[in-house]
Records
---
Amino acid sequence: MHFQPDPTLDSFRQEVRQFLRHHLPADLPWRKDGMRSPRADLVRWQRLLDAHGWGAPYWSQEHGGTGWSVAQRLVFDEECAAAGTPSLDGFAHKLVGPVINHFATPEQKAEHLPHIFQGTRLWCQGFSEPGSGSDLASLRTRAERVTGADGDHYVVNGQKIWTSYAHQADWIFLLVRTDPQAKKQAGISFLLADMKSPGITVRPIISIDGCHHLNETFFDNVRVPAANLVGTENEGWKLTKFLLNNEHATTADLPTLRRSLSQLHALAGSARAGGMALAERHEFLLRLARCEAELRAITVMVQRVAAMEQDHSAAAHAMGSILKVRGTELQQRMSEFLVETLGDHGAVAYPDPHARNAGRRALPMEDAARGVATEMFFRRATTIYGGTSEVQRSIIARSLFQF
Ligand SMILES: Cc1cc2nc3c(=O)[nH]c(=O)nc-3n(C[C@H](O)[C@H](O)[C@H](O)COP(=O)(O)OP(=O)(O)OC[C@H]3O[C@@H](n4cnc5c(N)ncnc54)[C@H](O)[C@@H]3O)c2cc1C
């Protein structure tokens, strides 16, 4: 397929850069580790964007968004990453927000959308359960509808797992089984619940990177107003497919790949191994060139996907999954390369502020190494969340060969 890069993208890039130069406060912490920003920074950044009319950079104008093309959104993300802005709440902007825009009632929109624009309500995603991840439709969390003196409610019982940032979230969007007799997908509904509801318990899971992103979320007779059902009861799978398509298509993460590449370039210029500058070592340069070539290929693929915005063919569908697999596998390879290049220094995963030498001036290699191993461990998860690589490969095969 041939595509023409959009000639107006350069001036759009200049516009974003100018905005960032003038509106990104110097005291908003520089984000260089690819992890989610603390809540206060995230809210502050969201408000600044909203004040400029950019509060929903990924949505159409019809839904109050900027109406940017996919290519413009990519430029926006790249420039924000390069400037080190705080992150946005991806669950709100890329997952539940579009579902609310397309399927929610006017009352639900009035209740939730203003909070997304203002950053005042953070979301988490309650889909996966123990034993129901790739095979999501086998989920068992039950919701029974009861009508009583206090109104029409669902009573939710069950457990979710791997709920990222549930410990910081104000609301959760979750899948529940409302008809246990129906065939798998048929009896599932899509609910929105306030995380402060009595009966919700969040228990932390510390991941291999030593950080707390993940949780188990338990529902014990949680009463969720029936008015919080999005779409039709037992037809939540339609919304789930819509949401998962968006989730799969958003994860090539070019800014992270570019950041890893520039870290490698910086090391090539400054580090030595076996008495030689890294920039003179053949093995290092060959490996760096491979990463660079792959990154260029992924960049072109991303541009192709952006140009296929209106294309709903099977091939276009497969492209999102191809990007997810190639992008996340390269993220893992580059973060491993960084750690290996740093040698012993690469093991500085969790700097200990109470260590005997705390406060001494770091050596140049240690500065380069800070957080690199932590990030490498975190990147192990990228080929799992948002649909595992194995499942993506099945989607690619089915889309392209139509079986
Ligand atoms: C860091 C992280 C954050 C996450 N955040 C969230 C979140 O916020 N909310 C949420 O709901 N979930 C979240 N998840 C869960 C994630 O969506 C699931 O882990 C993922 O869907 C895989 O499901 P599973 O863990 O049950 O593994 P399984 O589905 O049990 O898979 C185990 C292995 O079997 C393979 N496999 C399974 N089925 C097939 C098949 N049909 N063909 C070939 N191979 C197969 C898989 O590829 C994998 O290698 C997160 C996961 C991680 C790691």
Note: The chain has twelve helices and ten strands.
---
Amino acid sequence: MRNHDLVFLKHFSMVIVFLIGLTVALILLGVYINSQQEPEPNPVAERAMAERVRPVGAVYAGSTGAAAQAAAAAAAAAASAGQVAYDGTLDGSVIYANLCGACHTAGAAGAPKLEKAAWATRIAQGMDTLNKHAIEGFQGAAGVMPAKGGNPNLSDEQVIATVQWMVDNLK
Ligand code: HEC
């Protein structure tokens, strides 16, 4: 009876060991087969890539092309129309009256009034420096001159014309 038990135990353990080995072998086989598989394409990644390699512009040819170009030009003109300050005037007196004078006429916030005494040392810096300070803005001892007087839609030319007008009209 005891002997039978021992034999049974021996065979049973062998079966268990065999099954464990079979399990490990099947797992390894599964991993191997899976690694041979082509990965499924990811639709999100595919869309992102198509977006990245999309051409920047489109080609318009013939009459559709001419119409599209005319529409684009009209849209650009309409968009820029609102962005030119004071109708793009290069008349310094107009820009000064509408914008710069708010500070410079009364000397608000430390702005130099249009008086020769207030401008002598400033003019001595040279017109280029004055223009640069008016265009880019300037923190001086007296206060802050905002870039383009605070209106970014002014063109550099308009600011330069206004600075020239101010310097020409000192009292
Ligand atoms: C918000 C008020 C304000 C407005 C608006 C303003 N300025 Fe000034 N501006 C100043 C102040 C303040 C200074 C003096 C800064 C300092 O020297 O400390 C100054 C200085 C200047 C100077 C002298 C810079 C230098 O180097 O000494 C010029 C040129 C000038 N402004 C041009 C203009 C023009 C052109 C405009 C309109 C487009 C304009 N400013 C609008 C406040 C203003």
Note: The chain has a mean pLDDT of 87.
